[in-house]
Each structure stands twice: as C-alpha cells, then as structure tokens.
Amino acid sequence: MSDKPPVEPPGSEITSERLYLRRRDFLRNAGLFTGTAAAVAGGLYLLTRKQRRFMDAYVPDAGAVTGPVVKAKGAFDTDEPRTPYEDVTTYNNFYELGLDKEDPARLAHYLKPRPWTVTVDGEVHEPKTVDIDQLLSWFTMEERVYRMRCVEAWSMVIPWLGFPLAALLSRVKPTSHARYVTFTTLMDPEQLPGQQRPVLDWPYLEGLRLDEAMHPLTFMAMGLYGKQLPAQNGAPLRLVVPWKYGFKGGKSIVRISLTRTMPLTTWNMAAPHEYGFYANVNPAVTHPRWSQATERRIGDFERRPTLPFNGYGEQVAHLYAGMDLRENF
Ligand SMILES: Nc1nc2c(c(=O)[nH]1)N[C@H]1C(S)=C(S)[C@@H](COP(=O)(O)O)O[C@H]1N2
Ligand SMILES: [Mo]
C-alpha cells in the first residue's frame, strides 16, 4: 500500500451540496419551497410520482424479485420518509464504477448481475458455491426500511429487499472456530472499469465479527423499492449493516468467508487512521478531517444530529459492552 498515492476519502460534501441545491430548486420550481407543512407533504407526493415514472423507465427489466415478499413493517423498520428512488439510484459510492456520485449509475451497464455465482466458505461445515438465483430461492424476501449513514456525513432512508445474513450463515453451519466474516466484491476490470486504476486495493473487502454478522439487523440486499437491485447499488447481492458507516456494506459480493482472525478491509488498509474495522456510526468520534456530530439527510435543508449506532443502539450496543469505542472506531 505504501507506494500508492494518498487515497482521497470516499467522495466529498461538494456533490451532496449540488444535490441539495437541485432538490431545493425542484421544490422552488414546484412553488413549494416556502409553503406550509402540507405543501411540503404535497411536494414529497409529487416526487414519489416522479420517482415512479423514472423507476419504470430506468430499470426496465426489474420486475418483482422471485418468490414471496414479506412487506409487513418489521420491528427494526424506520417510518421516517424514504429517500426518493432517483436519489438512491443516482447518488452512489461505488468506486469500481467511478469516483463521482453520478458515475455508478452512468457506468452501471458494464456490470452484468447474471449469471452470478456466490461462494460461502472458510470455517463452515457445509461450504457452498451457488448460482445467485438458487441462493435467492432459499429465502423469503423481506422488506427492511433502514437508515444509511455514509462516513462522509450524508444519509438516506432506503427500503431494501433481501434476507438476514444469519439465515445464510446458519445454512452453511459455522464451525466453532469461526469468529469473523469477510465479504469480497467481484474482481473483474471489464465489468468494474474502476478496477483498472489502483484507487483502492481491489477487490473491495469488508468484514464483520461473527456476532455482528449474525445480528438480526444485518441484511443481504437483493433489491430496493420492491425491484431488483440496480447495478450501481451493488447488484445482485450487497451487504447492509445499518448501525455502521455505509462503507461496511460491500457491493456486488461473490464470496463470503468465515475466518478465525480479523480480516483486512479495504478502507482500513487504505487509511487506517481514518477508517477503523468496526466503523460503528459514532457522533462522538471525529473523523480526522471532519466532524461526525451531524449529517445531511439527502433532500433535507437542515443538518440533523447523528445518533450513536445510527439510532440502532438499543438493538446493538450490547455487542460492544466493555469495549473502548474510541480505540475500536
Ligand atoms: N464494492 C464497493 N462497495 C461499496 C463501496 C464501493 O466503493 N465499492 N462504497 C461504499 C460506501 S462508501 C457507501 S456509503 C455505500 C453506498 O451505497 P449506495 O450507493 O447503495 O447508497 O456503499 C459501500 N459499498
Ligand atoms: Mo460511504
């Protein structure tokens, strides 16, 4: 790593500023910017209609995900307003598809989510290499509406479709030695042209402790907004860990390995003083170059306070009992 050029943080506030201004312009053009709460609610309704048309045009083959879908509001769902589909699918971090927020949607067509094979191996009794559609057929798809907080201090609310990682891990039966889980993104510079340049040490690697991986909030997403996952969001399979910074959620995963030792993870290797292994959302631990105390919810005007564990502390704080969360950031 040491002979590589210094790595920039994943993106910048500048782009989100632009998006914020665009949203404000939209509302102003719609005559709603200075309106009442009712008018703002009306604006959200218009946006939703607009998103729906965009969605139908944008993901023409995205029919329903195979199999039954559980849509009931789960115990962990937030009922905060959902970030519009257009923003969720056009404001992305996926460095293998470019460094600007708009790049992944623009370059999404390079990535072919079928055929696709996923390997689950390592410290398990029943390692498996399966076709993605076979894997899909093992689970009932659930909808989970989660907050997502990027380490760059912006956030979204996203309705994911997928299954708990615990369901997959139970199937392969972890051995008593398994303590960590590694997630590996596809390595293919033709499908992920950003891998032609050594911006990061490819493939993108992420990891969790096994108890974090088995937590019921930890989710494997195959869709969002009831449709198949767009490539820019990590098709066909991506990790979602809602109490951690967004970079923990590795995209376009081909391998899930259980290990005895803590795995190397991409951002931690690139900038160990800035991105820790745990990366739990923590307003009290400042990034060396910016505060994590507040965040901008995409589409909002005002910043809002960032919550410890991104608001999931009641569910997950016990996982870190007795740990110094400043040291283990
Ligand atoms: N393979 C891969 N996964 C990745 C990234 C990436 O660059 N490459 N970016 C991460 C970051 S920084 C964030 S915030 C989320 C963004 O997910 P979204 O674009 O679906 O909102 O993906 C994460 N997963
Ligand atoms: Mo991020």
TrEMBL record:
SUPFAM superfamilies: Oxidoreductase molybdopterin-binding domain. It catalyses: L-methionyl-[protein] + a quinone + H2O = L-methionyl-(R)-S-oxide-[protein] + a quinol; L-methionyl-[protein] + a quinone + H2O = L-methionyl-(S)-S-oxide-[protein] + a quinol. Coiled coil: none annotated. Its cofactor is Mo-molybdopterin. Keywords: Membrane, Metal-binding, Molybdenum, Oxidoreductase, Signal, Transmembrane, Transmembrane helix. GO terms for biological process: protein repair. GO terms for molecular function: metal ion binding; molybdopterin cofactor binding; oxidoreductase activity, acting on a sulfur group of donors, quinone or similar compound as acceptor. Belongs to the MsrP family. This is Protein-methionine-sulfoxide reductase catalytic subunit MsrP. It comes from Myxococcus fulvus.
